[in-house]
Amino acid sequence: MTAELLLTNVRPLGGEAIDLLAREGRIAAAGAGLSAGAGATVVDGGGRLLFPGFVDAHAHMDKTLLGLGWYRNEVGPTLIEKIENERALRRERGIDAYAQSSRQARLAIAAGTTHIRTFVDIDTEIGLGGFEGVQRMRDDFREALTIQVVAFPQSGMLARPGTVELMETALKNGAEVVGGLDPSMIDRDPAKHLDVIFGLAERYDADVDIHLHEPGELGAFSVELIAERTRALGWRGRVVISHAICLGGVEEAYLGRLIDLLLENDIVIMSHGPSGLRPVPSIKRLREAGVRMCTGNDGIRDAWGPLNMPDMLLRAFIIAYRNNLRRDDEIEMVLDIATHGGARVMGDAAYGLMPGCRADFVVVDGETHVEAVIERPQRWLVVKGGRIVARGGECLV
Ligand SMILES: [Zn+2]
């Protein structure tokens, strides 16, 4: 059990300085002039900025190539080429999901991330090997990182008989979320793909998170099918569409109808400010319409590309850059997506900086929290469940 931790003189989201007292993993008090009992750890925050822990709500920890030397990326441009290339690489190099996800976990903790939703590839080639490795990692880090696992059919589901059964086994053994993937472009049978996904969700009482890279009206059609099934199953608030590139590629009137469907079914959009020349869903438009959002770093230094790093302040910067968000209030909105937005998706009702919340927070140098997105200072202190898990940019776990 963690002892008391008293953190003095910190500025929550750049506001007035306060003290924060953590006891038994929770924030026991927040305010001026707090004192702690004998034996408490006392840390003087020196007027630094305080954030709630960052939430990476879209990761692929099983397949990062971090620490394995530079991977020279010469993969072709299509989605299928990327998927095939990744499977071949996994075969040739025998990527160890446990070791690799553990590496990423340490870097994420050092960067102030306290929550991660990670997709784990399940297919007829690797079977449950990746899932089992990630489960072991999750167990190792259970005090330092809240991790949610998505059973994810990266190589297709109907196209590869046996995949659904493997996903079921993962769901029986601790995966909390059912993943899906481009129902038209990969499995080429959108209604059946989604029926199977939502069937698994119902059977295992699991949330749903679907990668949707399908462009324009094809992707929009998938959004409609997802909304229909969300309504039919009564899964309001339990479905995420990740990427949803199509929302950036349909005409305005159609976008309005899709937004109505998202709102009616409380479907969350995960957007990470993707690279590329295609239009992306406008974060601002979606948020102003009331659509819930979350974000994440997606694959880190993997066979898909080298551009992502496990740092949610960098992610907030990338989203702001990609969406041309320059005003402080706009960048604050991105920070809210990278913290509270993701925590809600992961079902953490005890998230935040208020008394009673789990003591998960990050302290950094800086004048304002928006400035921290631009400067991305080293994470001075990271606390998870009232315990210091990183200091001076070093993971202590
Ligand atoms: Zn992804």
Task: List the topology elements.
Blueprint: E1 5-12, E2 18-23, E3 26-31, E4 41-52, E5 54-59, H1 79-93, H2 97-110, E6 113-121, H3 129-140, E7 146-152, H4 163-172, E8 177-181, H5 190-204, E9 207-211, H6 216-233, E10 239-242, H7 252-264, E11 268-270, H8 283-289, E12 293-294, H9 312-322, H10 328-345, E13 361-364, H11 369-375, E14 379-384, E15 387-391, E16 394-395
Helix pairs in contact: 2-3, 5-6, 9-10
Residues 58, 60, 119, 211, 242, 298 line the site of zinc ion.
Can you offer a commentary on this structure?
The chain has eleven helices and 16 strands. It has 397 residues and is an alpha/beta fold. The protein has two domains: 92 residues, Urease, subunit C, domain 1 (Roll), CATH 2.30.40.10; 292 residues, Metal-dependent hydrolases (TIM Barrel, Alpha-Beta Barrel), CATH 3.20.20. The strands form two sheets. An eight-stranded mixed sheet has the order 3-2-1-4-13-14-15-16. It has an eight-stranded parallel sheet with strand order 5-6-7-8-9-10-11-12. The radius of gyration is 21 Å and the shape is globular. It starts with a strand and ends with a strand.
